[in-house]
Amino acid sequence: MGTGLAGIGVDAIEVARVRKLLQCRQSAEGRLFTEGEAGYCRRFADPYPRYAARFAAKEAVAKALGTGIISWVEIEVLGGGKPRVALHGRTAQAAAQLGITRVELSLSHTVDQAYAVAAAVKEGDDV
Predict the structure, then answer these.
(1) 3-class SS at 4?
(2) Which residues span the domain enclosing 56?
(3) What is the tally of structural domains in the chain?
(4) Cβ–Cβ < 8 Å for 1, 124
(5) What is the chain's alpha carbon radius of gyration, rounded to the nearest angstrom?
(6) Distance CA 93, CA 22 (A)
(7) DSSP character for 111?
(8) Which CATH number characterizes residue 89's domain?
(9) DSSP label of 27
């Protein structure tokens, strides 16, 4: 069984941009983040660097898949520590049609910037 890289995506965003969006538009949190993601971020005194990292992750995953954003909440960043990606709905279907079996993710953030790198991986005998 082989493993191959199907795509890679990178994204960076200013934390202040995400802070402003979430503070000015109350509906933005629900449109952009799952309840699990929002709950994780809200546990911290300053949740915005973590929101920004998850926003960057969704952009990076969409780039790695080559699909663009189908639905923000269909790309879910799970956990603290080593982040994992769960795909849902149409985004999961699109990934499956492309033969992508998992997405590896790396996140980083400072007070001012958030970064994400995503790698879409295919596994199987024909890779």
Answers:
(1) strand
(2) 2-124
(3) 1
(4) yes
(5) 15
(6) 29
(7) S
(8) 3.90.470.20
(9) T
Q: Are 5 and 123 in contact (CB under 8 A)?
A: no
Angle between helices 35-42 and 48-65 (to 10 degrees): 140
Q: Per residue in 74-109, is it b (16+ CB within 10 Å) or e — as a string?
A: bbbbeeeeebebebeeebeebbeeeebeebbbebeb
Say which residue the tokens 């000015």 belong to: 24
* Beta carbons within 8 Å of 80's beta carbon, 6+ residues apart: 40
- Tell me what percent of the chain is helix, strand and coil, each rounded to the nearest 5: 40, 35, 25
Tokens describing residue 36: 């699990």
Q: What is the pLDDT along the chain (127 residues), one digit of tens a residue?
A: 567 999 999 999 999 999 999 999 989 999 999 999 999 999 999 999 999 999 999 999 999 999 999 999 999 999 878 999 999 999 999 999 999 999 999 999 999 999 999 999 998 755 5
Query: Which residue reads 């920004």 in tokens?
Result: 52
